[in-house]
Amino acid sequence: MFKDLFQKKRKYATIPSERLERSGGPSEGERPKREIPEGLMSKCSKCGTIQYSKELEKNLKVCPACGHHMRLNALERIAVTLDPEGFIEFDSEMTSVDPLQFPGYASKLEQQRSKTGQVEAVITGQGTLGGHPVIVAVMNFEFFSGSMGSVVGEKITRAVEEATEKKLPLLIFSTSGGARMQESILSLMQMAKTSAALARFGESGGLYISVITDPTTGGVSASFASLGDIIIAEPGAVFGFAGRIVIEQTIRQKLPDDFQTAEFNLQHGQLDLVVHRKEMRSTLIKLLELHDVKGGF
Ligand SMILES: [Zn+2]
Q1: Residue 50 C-alpha to ligand 1 middle, in angstroms?
Q2: Of 99, 135, 146, 169, which has the fewest beta carbons less than 10 angstroms from its beta carbon?
Q3: Which domain does 65 fall in, by range?
């Protein structure tokens, strides 16, 4: 099907000449796929529909055919959520020191950095949302599967403390494969550390909105992601602690098809709302207004 589509395209698609030159120009016998510049088309991983990447980006990376919410990295998430101006990043240079000298960890970290252009799996900072100042933390699944090591935990904790001190609402977008095993117990400790900081924030009267994006699992799901005063998820997002296979093997039972999806979690009381990506920003602004936190709480 993929091949047919590109062959059909060849009849009428015009490709700018400089792109052809860059790819070495068309030649007989080459696979048709090479004539389509890299990244021009995208395929939905759920329904297989192929569409222009630019159109998909305009649609906030939600498949127009089936509504599947594709993953956004942290920078994309910030761009579609916050007001365009005025984001100030915190602790942008903080990096892990590989405290256990775990074999291969340092080089893997380096790989992740060059692949993503980011230094860790979370970006934290202060911005505004519909004019309301907020402290935000946005996790990045592209970096090390969004795993939480000591830097992720420390940056989140500092963001929570900043929100406590400045009396600003807190917004965390989670996505994570769990704790970063290369940092062992130091990773697991971050669950307690972030939760303790959030407890102090809650005691001071702060509003914390947790947004679950696909997938949010392991130590992150079992700590700060589940501690929001309001917990929202994107449609279809996987949200749970252990993976489906592990649970099925343990309890020796087949789990429902929609197990751990946002919709399943909503039905079972684990979430407050499931919100389409196109309505996420306006929903968050409405919640901030409802809680009247413009001038601090
Ligand atoms: Zn689709």
Answers
A1: 8
A2: 99
A3: 33-70
